């Protein structure tokens, strides 16, 4: 039995016996927050449990390393949708210790691509098109710095609501302990509207 067959078989029973009922909720987060976290397998259940979150409490966006790689990429778009369309009032960026992205070797990954059938011509085409493939695949060295950078990208984004707090935390994937890196409630927010300074009036 393939993994797909196994999942579909279980799903049939899940629906038939109404095992979904405890999870029924709305699309709006009850705690009005959106979380950007890493896709690490250790966080699937641990992160919500460590934050006392249940189904329906939050919106969760995941990326490798909890990175916002591009200010107008799909991750940033998802965060903006959560804020503007789905009633999230706070953003949490949560990285974790022992993250795989901190040790990603672009050269080794490209070698794996070749070993699994990606041709040299394809790689050359990507490079010639202006994409810095190694830079795009490269991870980060320090998780605290990475989390801080992602928070900066989000909070300073020209389309982000200025008064939305953007918090940065790091979770221990073994114990669930959270370390605070950025307290969004204490960060000054940029004003996205430019107000022209008016010359001071002098009394005549």
UniProtKB/TrEMBL annotation:
<protein>
    <recommendedName>
        <fullName>carbonic anhydrase</fullName>
        <ecNumber>4.2.1.1</ecNumber>
    </recommendedName>
</protein>
<dbReference type="InterPro" id="IPR036874">
    <property type="entry name" value="Carbonic_anhydrase_sf"/>
</dbReference>
<keyword id="KW-0862">Zinc</keyword>
<dbReference type="Pfam" id="PF00484">
    <property type="entry name" value="Pro_CA"/>
</dbReference>
<feature type="binding site">
    <location>
        <position position="38"/>
    </location>
    <ligand>
        <name>Zn(2+)</name>
    </ligand>
</feature>
<feature type="binding site">
    <location>
        <position position="99"/>
    </location>
    <ligand>
        <name>Zn(2+)</name>
    </ligand>
</feature>
<comment type="similarity">
    <text>Belongs to the beta-class carbonic anhydrase family.</text>
</comment>
<keyword id="KW-0479">Metal-binding</keyword>
<feature type="binding site">
    <location>
        <position position="40"/>
    </location>
    <ligand>
        <name>Zn(2+)</name>
    </ligand>
</feature>
<dbReference type="InterPro" id="IPR001765">
    <property type="entry name" value="Carbonic_anhydrase"/>
</dbReference>
<dbReference type="GO" id="GO:0004089">
    <property type="term" value="F:carbonate dehydratase activity"/>
</dbReference>
<dbReference type="GO" id="GO:0008270">
    <property type="term" value="F:zinc ion binding"/>
</dbReference>
<feature type="binding site">
    <location>
        <position position="96"/>
    </location>
    <ligand>
        <name>Zn(2+)</name>
    </ligand>
</feature>
């Amino acid at each position: 039995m393939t993994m797909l067959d196994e999942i579909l078989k279980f799903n049939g029973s899940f629906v038939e016996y109404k095992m979904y009922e405890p999870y029924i909720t709305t699309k709006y987060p009850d705690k009005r927050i959106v979380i950007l976290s890493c896709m690490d397998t250790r966080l699937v259940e641990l992160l919500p449990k460590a934050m006392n979150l249940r189904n329906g409490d939050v919106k969760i966006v995941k990326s490798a390393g909890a990175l916002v790689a591009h200010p107008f990429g799909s991750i940033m778009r998802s965060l903006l949708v959560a804020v503007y369309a789905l009633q999230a009032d706070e953003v949490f960026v949560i990285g974790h210790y022992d993250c795989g992205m901190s040790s990603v070797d672009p050269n080794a990954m490209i070698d794996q691509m070749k070993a699994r059938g990606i041709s040299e011509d394809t790689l050359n085409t990507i490079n010639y098109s202006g994409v810095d493939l190694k830079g795009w695949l490269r991870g980060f060295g320090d998780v605290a710095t990475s989390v801080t950078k992602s928070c900066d990208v989000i909070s300073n984004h020209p389309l982000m609501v200025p008064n939305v707090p953007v918090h940065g935390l790091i979770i221990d994937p073994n114990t669930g302990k959270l370390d605070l890196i950025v307290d969004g409630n204490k960060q000054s927010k940029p004003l996205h509207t430019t107000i022209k300074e008016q010359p001071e009036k002098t009394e005549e």
